[in-house]
Design goal:
Length: 238
């Protein structure tokens, strides 16, 4: 099973605060059945160049790999980034370097407010450019602001993959909405977006159990299968 969105690399963003915490997170992920974990710290173009970010991420990632106990070495860890939209991104040439390593999968975070026409047009331009496959991080957070679900249908029809957080299915205030979005076809994959072992721990297993209870085993199984198939189609892509 694949997790496309997590903050397990220590001390690069607001995710894991130490190698010890990252190891605890990875142990929990492994016990929940995750075999591939994409490690996607936040990337903000307003703070760093891609080059600076990648240097920082890679040194933290290598440090974590050195600390990894033997029993976690069978998890495949793929460094990547969760890239916040920035004006002009459709023209930025360096974006490919922020894809999940060894793939052409690009995890995109959008602003938490109503998107402007320019922002929407730019996302469509990126989708149509065919430069990479875009995964929209925690899609559920944008539904409230955009109002019209048709926009998400159009994004999907241009090839965007809609990712929801596992926690969306577990919070008592949102789980009803989560099941509805899943039933309506607005959840292509789920990921942990885990940040730590405390208030945002890995929670894939609990989310899948809820989905199985509410929507049936086939639905839960196909979310896992679709995620693995997405990775298989896009790994080692040029
Ligand atoms: Fe995230």
């Amino acid at each position: 099973m694949t997790d496309f969105h997590s903050h397990v690399i220590p001390r690069v963003d607001d995710g894991s605060r130490s190698s010890a915490m990252s190891i605890e997170m990875l142990k929990a992920m492994k016990s929940q059945g995750l075999s591939t974990v994409c490690c996607t710290p936040h990337y903000y173009a307003s703070q760093y160049s891609p080059e600076h970010f990648l240097k920082m991420r890679d040194s933290a990632f290598e440090h974590l790999l050195k600390k990894l106990p033997e029993d976690l070495k069978d998890i495949s860890l793929l460094p990547g980034a969760e890239v916040l939209y920035f004006p002009g991104m459709a023209e930025a040439e360096e974006l490919e370097s922020l894809c999940i390593e060894g793939t052409d999968l690009f995890l995109l975070e959008m602003p938490f407010r109503k998107w402007s026409e320019r922002e929407i047009n730019e996302v469509f331009a990126l989708l149509r450019s065919g430069r990479f496959k875009i995964i929209l991080a925690h899609t559920e957070r944008y539904f409230y602001y955009q109002k019209d679900p048709q926009l998400f249908r159009e994004l999907q029809s241009e090839g965007m993959v809609l990712q929801s957080n596992a926690g969306f299915f577990l919070n008592w205030k949102t789980k009803h909405k989560a099941v509805k979005l899943l039933n309506d076809g607005f959840v292509d994959i789920i990921s942990t977006d885990t940040h730590n072992t405390e208030d945002r721990p890995p929670n894939m297993e609990a989310a899948l159990a809820l989905i199985e209870r509410k929507c049936g085993k086939d639905e839960a199984d196909s979310l896992i299968k679709d995620g693995d198939a997405l990775l298989a189609r896009h790994i080692n892509a040029d």
